[in-house]
Structures are given as structure tokens and as C-alpha cells.
Amino acid sequence: MKRVLSLTLLVLALCGGVLALAGQAPGGDGLIPREAFLRTLVRLDLTEAQKRDVAVVLRSHRGEARAAFDRVRAAADTFRQTAASPAADEAAVRQAFRGLAAAGEEAVVVKNRIMAEVRGKLTPEQQKLLLESRDLIAEKVRERVETARAIFEEWIETHAVGVS
To answer: What global pTM score does this model have?
Structure first.
């Protein structure tokens, strides 16, 4: 069960970038990803021409990003429902997770396609800042996952006292 939970968290974390464009899930600093991405754009100190160029890129992929997010959300819902079902067998859970992984993979590809276009509009210095922001957000996500894992482990050890 811990392995399935870890894999689920990994897939959902990988999907975070496309969620930034759809703006539907928590992101860095307690913001939804779209807000975190907007904050990053502000930090880049874009020129007016760059703002226009980046906005055009984002607008041109908006439908694709939202569709990818919707597929991830639907697959995640299916996975959660399947895993929570008392009648779910291992094969059904694996199949539902494969659907979630496939949707997540496609979402990451869409996100990377969009971000490649965005990076093409930035100066080398701005590209460096973008990478630093991405790394900072990734670190915050890792910290949250580790904190949750530690709390979970502490709960298990507290309540499994005397059982080997």
C-alpha cells in the first residue's frame, strides 16, 4: 500500500506543471500552480514584448493543457475510486494506476512542450531564474511529501505499539 501511495504521489507531482496552466491544484507557497507560475513570471521581469509573446504561447496551448489536466483528474478519480472499492482486486488497481500514469505522462509532455516555447522567449538570465524557481517549487513539494511521510510513519509506530 505504501508503494502505491508513493507512486501515486510521484505521478501527481509530475503532473504539477500542467496543473499550473489549468490552475486547479495546490502548488508552491500554498498557491495553486497557476498563481505560482504567475509569481514566477513576475519575478522574471519580462519586457512588454516578452509578456505579449509568453501570453500568446500560453493562450495557444490553453485548451491542450486544460484537456490534459482533465484527463489526469478523471484518471486520478478513477484510481481513487478503484483503490477505495472493497471489491477492487490487485489487477483492477494496477489497471487504474496505469491509466493515471498514462494521463500524467501526456500531461508532462504537454507541459514540457509549452515550457520549451516559453523558454525560447526568455533571455539566458531569465531562463536561469525560471529553472531556479522550478527547483525551489520542487524542493517545497519534496519537503511536503517528506513531512507527510514522517507524520504517517509516526502515526503507524504510535498505534502499532507492541505488535511486530
So the answer is: 0.69
Q: Which pairs from 107-110 meet CB under 8 Å and 24+ separation?
A: 107/14, 107/15, 107/17, 107/18, 107/19, 107/68, 107/69, 107/71, 107/72, 108/14, 108/15, 108/17, 108/18, 110/18, 110/61, 110/64, 110/65, 110/68
Q: Up-side HSE of residue 33: CA atoms within 13 Å toward CB?
A: 21
Q: Total domain count for the chain? A: 1
Looking at the domain assignment, is residue 164 inside a domain? no
**Residue pLDDT, tens place only, 13-49:** 545 544 444 444 444 455 566 677 888 889 999 999 9
As a whole number of Å, the end-to-end CA separation of the chain is 18
Structural domain includes residue 160? no
User: Crossing angle, helix 48-84 and helix 90-119, to 10 degrees?
Assistant: 180
In a domain, 69, yes or no: yes
* DSSP H stretches of helix in 23-123: 33-43, 48-84, 90-119
Asked whether residue 62 carries a pLDDT value surpassing 60, the answer given is: yes
145 lies in which domain range? 2-153
